[in-house]
Amino acid sequence: MSYETYFQNNREKHLAELKEWLAIPSISALSEHKPDMVKAAQWLVDKIKQAGLEHVELHETKGHPIITADYLHAPGKPTVLVYGHYDVQPVDPLNLWVTPPFEPDIRDGKLYARGSTDDKGQLFLHIKALEAIIKEEGTLPVNIKLCVEGEEEISSANLPGFLEANKEKLAADAILISDTSLLEKGKPAISTGLRGLCALELHVDTANTDLHSGTYGGGVPNALHAIVSLLASLHDDKGRVTVEGFYDGVPDISPLMKEEFQKLNLNEEQLRESLGLEQLYGEEGFTFVERTGARPTLELNGVYGGFQGEGSKTVIPKEAHAKITCRLVGNQDPAAVLENIKRHLHSHIQPGAKLTIKDGEKARAFNIDPSHRMLQLAADAYEDVYGVRALFTKDGGSIPIVETFSRVLGAPAVLMGFGLPDENLHAPNEHFNLENFDKGLLTIVSYLKRI
Amino acid sequence: MSYETYFQNNREKHLAELKEWLAIPSISALSEHKPDMVKAAQWLVDKIKQAGLEHVELHETKGHPIITADYLHAPGKPTVLVYGHYDVQPVDPLNLWVTPPFEPDIRDGKLYARGSTDDKGQLFLHIKALEAIIKEEGTLPVNIKLCVEGEEEISSANLPGFLEANKEKLAADAILISDTSLLEKGKPAISTGLRGLCALELHVDTANTDLHSGTYGGGVPNALHAIVSLLASLHDDKGRVTVEGFYDGVPDISPLMKEEFQKLNLNEEQLRESLGLEQLYGEEGFTFVERTGARPTLELNGVYGGFQGEGSKTVIPKEAHAKITCRLVGNQDPAAVLENIKRHLHSHIQPGAKLTIKDGEKARAFNIDPSHRMLQLAADAYEDVYGVRALFTKDGGSIPIVETFSRVLGAPAVLMGFGLPDENLHAPNEHFNLENFDKGLLTIVSYLKRI
């Protein structure tokens, strides 16, 4: 039976299984979901065993469990380590979801649920592709190792140590990861670069209590005034980050890279319209693809303080808060970037306001040469299924662990993504296009057979 | 029996009654408390009747009910109209209250509850003072009218119309209001000026959904970036409001006024310390008393957008929100100020961000000449009880209706407050010092007898 037929025959069953997994709210960032994390991990362990993989182990960590497994019956053949994550992002604002984030729903050929594309849905493809080959051919054409974590959305705190401690056990010739996107429908892409990341939270405190704006207004510091002027100081009016030293280690965009970017032929006007934007916006002098692919950013992810209820309240808030993440490129050092931002913040805080800063995750950017054989074979596999060869791109997102994996195991990372850029990952109404669910299964099978 | 003895004998009973009233969460700003508003109004109607006042009426409005009553048995004597409000401010952040806001609690001679000082506690003094005189002397020494509303904290939307429609019925020689503060413990003050007010809410929208900061970061507008730079543009680094025309109608501080302010002899260092501040802060070139008494302000009362939960979330928020109120002085026209702010905001919004602005309440500043007989008698009454004559001050707060009352009824407003500036009005742990509860009752009796 052809794999097309096999996957067609099993489609309903596979989707029902995936929906079951997506219904478990495995939000790694929120401690109240700890039991759901265990449940989601255990669900996956069972499916990996069912698929026919061996040595399936669930490793406890200080955070959420890591799962490993293998199938090593192709002596002399390369070993591929498949990585993915079973944790998902928080879901607020909940009111913007058309159907609840943990009640998976298929509409117009798309599967809606938190985690559907990032990354349960994509990881699920690998389990089912491996199961299919084992069932159809009795064995796998390559050696396979599996390493799945539950902390990708919260900086993979425990995976680097686990990798170091299990270097031999996890040794591989390539690391295969499906946690990225096609360029657009029908246009596969292999990312040869991921931006790095660093995160911080800041807290501004003024008085020991909220104050009445009549009695005190104009005479005392207002935590909100202090935080907005502080945060506004982080960018100039050309969209450039003003933090001293922020751009250290950022490479110029080479003529070759510029050419690669132009090949992508992104329609900015179409993108603008699809996002409902009046206009795109960013650092002056760069295109959208350059801004997201080759330039670092400093983004405010959350700002809050004072009264948020209905109506008005004449209060001078005593505290205000902000959450910031940066995307890093080239040789930017996340630790140095954090230090520079902290120095900037401390030197720009308004008199009378106290500033506290808490560091978050840190990850370096990742880059790989597209001429590597394992990447070229991946492009071929896409061509088998999609009819067009994958383009090699730079991805704006971060999978902090990719750089670590690649460095610790000394192997190339193959970012074979099956999402689409507009699938609302990290946002309300996250979904996964089932066209790529179907094609993803076939592409993985083709890749493993080609190696 | 002396009034001291009378109030001493009834103290427990009076406090128990007041606690009963404070336990009703009459938050006018939140629609879910509509039934509590009715309950709090009805409770007051009953107490006014018990006190012996006549023609007690509850008037329905488009918002919350207005209560009127009178006692007109002193022919040839002046008529005093007592005003107060039974609505209270919202209570968040709830976690900062030591005891719940609607479970009144007496600690260290202070009554803790939302509304204890603003304004239920102070209004209650008038009801009990009137009741005492009627009980002790069989009648009142002046004619009394009562007008109590439930919308003071939300701009008194319906009272001005009510006043216009009932001009004759409410005609009086003075309007007596206890909704302000002593200068400090043992130092009574009569406010001869209140700042005006205008309010607005603003909403910034960018994309049609929250976006992933990896895929889009650096290439699309971020609603939070847009709002912080917009809000930061409202002040310069000398604490001055940068909105063109904002200071139109603001009088210079005259040498006489400067002298009055100096007489207050405010200890700025002590104030700073009591508020837990590193330093006071405000418009350069003015003292704290000048800033809050004679200068206008533009305050951010709330700002929010994006992720507020535990941990981090790499999201580009699609919307951000802010609430602003201004305190106005002299001849500043609230409508013109609002227009000027709106013009400023629309001309400073970042490209790619959409701005929506919603107007809130508007009120002019109020000023009265301290040499007026009704004010001088009030200062005498304070002296009878506190042993020191009240100082005439300018108050930073706004009671929007005072200017309207005074204008529509053509009578002086006597702001005979019994609160203290540090009683956390509009903030967690609002309280009322019982020393001023006791002295307030006696001061009101003395005032009415002196007229």
TrEMBL record, chains A, B:
<keyword id="KW-0645">Protease</keyword>
<dbReference type="InterPro" id="IPR011650">
    <property type="entry name" value="Peptidase_M20_dimer"/>
</dbReference>
<dbReference type="GO" id="GO:0046872">
    <property type="term" value="F:metal ion binding"/>
</dbReference>
<keyword id="KW-0378">Hydrolase</keyword>
<dbReference type="InterPro" id="IPR002933">
    <property type="entry name" value="Peptidase_M20"/>
</dbReference>
<dbReference type="GO" id="GO:0008233">
    <property type="term" value="F:peptidase activity"/>
</dbReference>
<keyword id="KW-0479">Metal-binding</keyword>
<dbReference type="GO" id="GO:0006508">
    <property type="term" value="P:proteolysis"/>
</dbReference>
<dbReference type="InterPro" id="IPR051458">
    <property type="entry name" value="Cyt/Met_Dipeptidase"/>
</dbReference>
<feature type="domain" description="Peptidase M20 dimerisation">
    <location>
        <begin position="193"/>
        <end position="348"/>
    </location>
</feature>
<protein>
    <submittedName>
        <fullName>Dipeptidase</fullName>
    </submittedName>
</protein>
<dbReference type="Pfam" id="PF07687">
    <property type="entry name" value="M20_dimer"/>
</dbReference>
<dbReference type="Pfam" id="PF01546">
    <property type="entry name" value="Peptidase_M20"/>
</dbReference>
